[in-house]
């Protein structure tokens, strides 16, 4: 048995913050505005896993109204989603994700980000795809005002009777 989940997230650009993307600090920024570290990519992946499990979304598990999640490391959110999957009898087969941004150019960071996501999820890097696109000036991302990420995950049953 298999389950598919999809997730997406968008954050405003905040030049005063450091960019964290896929669990990797990217000094050339810009950073993103958010209650946690605003890692738009890990948020999309977390939502995809939670969706595949029919467990709601990241806001349900880590509400912005809770001050304990202020500046939280989004890798902890993803670890929570992965633990939920394993506890319910599912394993991650693969992740396919896309980040839309005008800056910074992500090509130099893609393999580092893939490796970091794989480590957080405890899977091989070959199970993690990260792509980068621009928006050609057509929307908030294209104007450099926001960053957007999407993710699709495939979960495979790891034990009979998975819920």
Give a structural overview:
The strands form two sheets. Strands 4-1-7-5-6 form a five-stranded mixed sheet. Strands 2-3 form a two-stranded antiparallel sheet. The chain has a single domain, classed as 60s Ribosomal Protein L30, Chain: A. Helices cover 26% and strands 31% of the residues. The mean pLDDT is 95. The protein contains four helices and seven strands. The radius of gyration is 15 Å and the shape is globular. Helix 4 (110-121) links the parallel strand 5 (90-100) and strand 6 (128-133). Helix 1 (40-52) packs parallel to helix 3.
Q: Strands, helices and their partners?
A:
Elements: E1 2-14, E2 19-21, E3 24-26, E4 31-32, H1 40-52, H2 58-61, H3 74-87, E5 90-100, H4 110-121, E6 128-133, E7 146-157
Parallel strand pairs: 5-6
Antiparallel strand pairs: 1-4, 1-7, 2-3, 5-7
Task: Describe what is shown at a glance.
The protein has 163 residues and is of the alpha+beta class. The chain has helices spanning 40-52, 58-61, 74-87, 110-121, and strands at 2-14, 19-21, 24-26, 31-32, 90-100, 128-133, 146-157.
What brief labels describe this structure?
single chain; 163 residues; alpha+beta; 60s Ribosomal Protein L30, Chain: A; 4 helices; globular
Kindly provide the name of the CATH class: Alpha Beta
Report the span from N to C terminus.
Answer: 11 Å
Can you say what the CATH homologous superfamily is? 2-C-methyl-D-erythritol 2,4-cyclodiphosphate synthase
* Widest sheet, order of strands: 4-1-7-5-6
Question: Structural class of the secondary elements?
Answer: alpha+beta
């Amino acid at each position: 048995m298999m389950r598919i989940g999809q997730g997406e997230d968008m954050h405003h650009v905040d030049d005063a913050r450091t960019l964290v993307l896929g669990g990797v600090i990217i000094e050339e920024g810009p950073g993103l505005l958010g209650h946690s570290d605003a890692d738009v990519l890990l948020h999309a992946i977390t939502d995809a896993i939670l969706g595949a499990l029919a467990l709601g979304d990241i806001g349900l598990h880590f509400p912005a109204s809770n001050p304990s999640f202020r500046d939280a490391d989004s890798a902890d959110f993803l670890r929570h989603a992965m633990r939920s999957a394993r506890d319910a009898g599912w394993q991650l087969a693969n992740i396919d994700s896309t980040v839309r941004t005008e800056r910074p150019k992500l090509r130099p960071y893609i393999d580092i980000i893939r490796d970091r996501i794989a480590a957080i999820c405890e899977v091989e890097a070959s199970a993690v795809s990260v792509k980068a696109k621009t928006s050609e000036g057509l929307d908030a991302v294209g104007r450099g005002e926001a960053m957007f990420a999407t993710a699709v995950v495939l979960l495979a049953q790891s034990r009979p009777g998975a819920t």
